[in-house]
Amino acid sequence: MTSSLLTSPLRIASVALLFFAGALAITVAFAATVFGVPTGDIPSLTLILIAAGGGLGLLALLLMWPTVLGRVGGVRGQLVGTSLIASLLLVTMVLVGSRAMFISEHDLAVLLTMLLFATLLAVGFSLYGAMPMAQRVERVRAGTKRLASGKLDTELPVEGHDEIAGLAEDFNRMARTLEEVTTRERGLEQARRNLIAAVSHDLRTPLAAVLALVEAVADGVAPDPETEARYLSSARRELTNLGLLIDDLFELMQIDTGVLRLNLEPASLRDLVSDTLSSFQPQTERKGVRLVGEVSEDVDPVLANLPKLQRVLHNLIGNALRHTPAGGIISLRAEPRGELVEVEIVDTGGGIVSEELPHIFERSFQGEESRTLPPETGISPGAGLGLAISRALVEAHGGEIGVESEIGEGTRFYFTLRRA
Predict the structure, then answer these.
(1) CA angle 376, 359, 305 (to 5 degrees)
(2) Kind and range of the H or E element at 273?
(3) Which of 113, 262, 336, 385 has the maximum number of C-beta atoms within 10 A of its C-beta?
(4) What are the C-alpha distances in Å from 7 to residues 3, 10, 145?
(5) Sign of the dihedral through C-alpha 208, 211, 214, 216
(6) Are strands 302-304 and 340-347 parallel, antiparallel or unpaired?
(7) Cα-flanking dihedrals φ and ψ of residue 416, to 5°?
(8) Backbone dihedral angles phi then psi of residue 161, each to the nearest 5 degrees
(9) 326, containing H or E segment
């Protein structure tokens, strides 16, 4: 900071010196060629210009220094002050020149009268030009105060094409961005509250069930070993659901904190689909749903992180299984689409209403059906995090995910992967 304060005046003085030298050279050149000043008078004229112009220019530079002129206050005062200083510089130069040229007192008086009138006009025009500029600057200040007080819908009128108009445009963009960010933060805060409420419900449910089952076994309520084994099996299933929920929360925490980094490698999508279909076979048989798969010959290899991609497939198929009634069909297909591969999961469930489709990938979103699944299906209801996690994982793969649905016809989830 100290270095900046020291070099700034030096830089300004250097620029002023170069400007003075350039102005002097141009003036002398015009005097010798255009104005017809005798060659013998050029040296003396140059000395007068250096003495008078240099001294008065230095004085004007000091007077126009921000710490000096800034005391006038306001844009209006500073513009008028600058105009007045320039006019006084002109008058003084004329006075010095008139003395050097031995102009008569009468001619000098007339010349000074004309210069005074020109100076007053210059100050008046400066004041006239400064007033609207000062008003525009004041509007920017007022808008800044309103924005600072929390009125994020503040917008300034954009007048003209100068720097102040550009400042107003930048201000409006900043205000819109702040409003969008604030709205998004409020939405995220509401989503966090909904998520906490949903997770609290889904944590209490398996814990209460496990506690009741364990207490029943401990108290000897089970009349025979078969009933006791059934109680313990139910407790194990609830603990498994609880573990899956904790895994979802941990995955979501990684996504939110930005620490989720995927190492993508060439992988076989065909093998992954085959393994996924096999893992869901017991659940689909218990619910009476048929799960089929179809993979084109030329989809492999794809760029993928196999554990995370398998998580996506499990989430989407599990979601389809929760909403497909007995006798329904779930189809898993994969086909090439140019440089991409599209994977789709289509079910014959009841479908999703159009109002819910834009929110389907939001956290804690789930239909009421998923909370009332019969326990014998072995399907975890989850906390509505699976689709949000699936979207984040697909995007981390460099792909896109979407959904289409018709009431009474079923739902189609699809996402893309890059080919290796």
Answers:
(1) 70
(2) helix 269-287
(3) 385
(4) 6, 5, 34
(5) negative
(6) unpaired
(7) -115, 155
(8) -135, 25
(9) none
Amino acid at 354: S
Tens of pLDDT, residue by residue, the chain (420 residues): 444 444 466 777 787 788 778 888 888 888 788 777 788 878 887 887 777 667 766 766 666 665 565 565 566 666 667 777 777 777 777 776 666 665 566 666 766 676 677 667 766 766 666 777 777 788 888 888 888 888 888 888 887 777 778 888 888 888 888 888 888 788 767 766 766 666 666 677 677 777 877 777 777 776 777 777 877 877 787 777 677 677 767 767 666 666 667 788 898 888 888 888 888 888 888 888 888 888 888 888 888 888 888 888 888 888 888 888 888 889 899 998 888 999 999 998 888 888 888 878 876 555 444 434 444 444 444 445 778 888 888 888 888 998 988 888 889 999 999 888
Give yes or no for a cis peptide into 381 (omega within 30° of 0).
no
Which class for 280: exposed (0-12), middle (13-18), buried (19 or more C-beta within 10 A)?
Answer: buried
Beta carbons within 8 Å of 76's beta carbon, 6+ residues apart: 127, 130, 131, 133, 134
Nearest to 379 by CA among 246, 284, 301, 292: 284
Q: How far apart are CA 44 and CA 21, in angstroms?
A: 17
Task: Tell me which amino acid residue 34 is.
Answer: V
Return the structure tokens found at 83.
């105009």
